[in-house]
Amino acid sequence: xxxxxxxxxxxxxxxxxxxxxxxxLSLIAEARRAGAELIVFPELSLTGYALQDLTPSVxxxxxxxxxxxxxxxxxSKDIDIVVGFVDEDxxxxxxxxxxxxxxxxxxxxxxxxxxxxxxxxxxxxxxAWGDTVQAFDTRFGRMxxxxxxxxxxxxxxxxxxxxxxxxxxxxxxxxxxxxNTEPRLESARWVEQINKAYASLFTTxxxxxxxxxxxxxxxxxxxxxxxxxDGKLLAQGPYHQExxxxxxxxxxxxxxxxxxxxxxxxxRTELVKRELSRILEGAR
Amino acid sequence: xxxxxxxxxxxxxxxxxxxxxxxxxxxFSHAVIGxxxxxxxxxxxxxxxxxLGAENVLAVRMPYRxxxxxxxxxxxxxxxxxxxxxxxxxxTEMVEPLFARFPDMGDVRRGNAMAxxxxxxxxxxxxxxxxxxxxxxxxxxxxxxxxTLYGDSxxxxxxxxxxxxTQVRQLARAIGVPEVIIDKPPSADxxxxxxxxxxxxxxxxxxxxxxxxxxxxxxxxxECIDAGFSKDFVxxxxxxxxxxxxxxxxxPIAKLSNRTVGYDFLYLRDWGT
Lengths: 284, 273
Prior knowledge:
The structure holds 2 protein chains of 2 kinds. By secondary structure, chain A is α/β, with parallel strands linked by helices. Chain A has helices at 17-33, 69-75, 123-126, 155-162, 186-202, 253-260, 263-266, 269-283, and strands at residues 2-9, 38-40, 80-88, 94-102, 105-111, 136-138, 141-147, 167-172, 205-210, 212-215, 218-221, 225-227, 233-236, 243-250. A 6-stranded mixed sheet of chain A has the order 5-4-3-2-1-14, covered by helices on one side. Chain A has a 6-stranded mixed sheet with strand order 6-7-8-9-12-13, with helices on one face. In chain A, strand 1, helix 1 (17-33) and strand 2 (38-40) form a beta-alpha-beta unit. Chain B is 51% helix and 6% strand. Chain B has a domain at 8-198: Rossmann fold (3-Layer(aba) Sandwich). By secondary structure, chain B is of the alpha/beta class. The radius of gyration of chain B is 19 Å and the shape is globular. The chains are: A alpha/beta, B alpha/beta. The interface between A and B is medium-sized, with 24 and 24 residues.
């Protein structure tokens, strides 16, 4: 089975949800016309990244009654969509969230479980921590969403893998930093390394969409990637440029890679559980 | 080995993108730059001309009567190479009445007054030319506080403030700033014969390496000494960074209410754009 994925590395307006929604709808239509069956937008694609005190005013609920999501859910009748947003729950906690929309329904919502609050990051000050890591079924197979810092903790992709995800969808708003003599920033090298590693170690597809543009002095470097279950780079977007990267993936590659390299078959989850329990109990 | 070299194509791409987007989203298409003829302001002019187009950049030359003729000529070279707009507005008549009122004014006071007179002109040209003031301060002088508060440090955006002085030279060379500008001794040109390195008491080449370890690489003072810098030099530089921190932050507001600008009223400048 083949699947054409559109990685939409877009520039967002900070705090202007309506302008960002319009951009989403227009790019969704463009991707659909280009034959894509799934379009993935970056972290916080509806709101912009460094929201600070804008956080409560840009929150939306992934339901048909929501004035923003009703358009996106409607647009998902023809193409599956992953969108980044601020989710406000019934108790008024705000989460950095990613929603998977398909055929007019919300299939899954992931709340970011690791909020970087160090260095130039301040997410824990403004957002609540997500508390679940779950894969979900789509018409193209089982997938999992992780948002930026989530995939800097190996446990999140690992759990998604064990929960059945064969396509990992990573979204980011990664600020560019670390200029040296190389033609790419250190932040790009770090992220590309681990994406390739996850694809190789888990014999899964790993798609990563990173936004572009600037917020005050921060630049976001784009460079979205898609790695196949052999860890081979199938496509990469340009650095720092707004674009949609289209890639057709052959889902049968999962079969071929896992025949060659049965890492999933041999993964000893009971051993992991036993040893993890021992380690955690020992730490008490 | 401490290596401050970097990929100049990548830096140019990020910095021109920064200038263009930050000026455009603020609702402007023009820029105003105080062009002294030194390497910092020349580099800012080159980057801004690339970002916005030469016709949208106004270089302002603001000599004082003792300013060196070389500076004016070097600035003219940059204007001619880039084809940017320019205007020359001497500050002598602005500052001399103040100097006459206080005849015993020392070099620091006079230098500060001159830097602030230039700021007044730049911000006036900003309104007249409908352009934002693009800054010319580098990371070395920002960290050392070697700058006049509300003077040469005043700007709307600063594209080169995360490049050390030696890195400014590297990017300037790559982007085509004339060698004569890059190679001359850096000077604020506030009085005849002044050079930055004489006044600071060390060279940019030395202090940039130390700052890189202290700031970028998070070395402790002890580790810097172990890396070969003298104890006295390390201590002097750390003290300078601390003493002049006030120049790098907005003035503290005394908190009284539940919500106060700077503490718990937090928005980026790009809010809504």
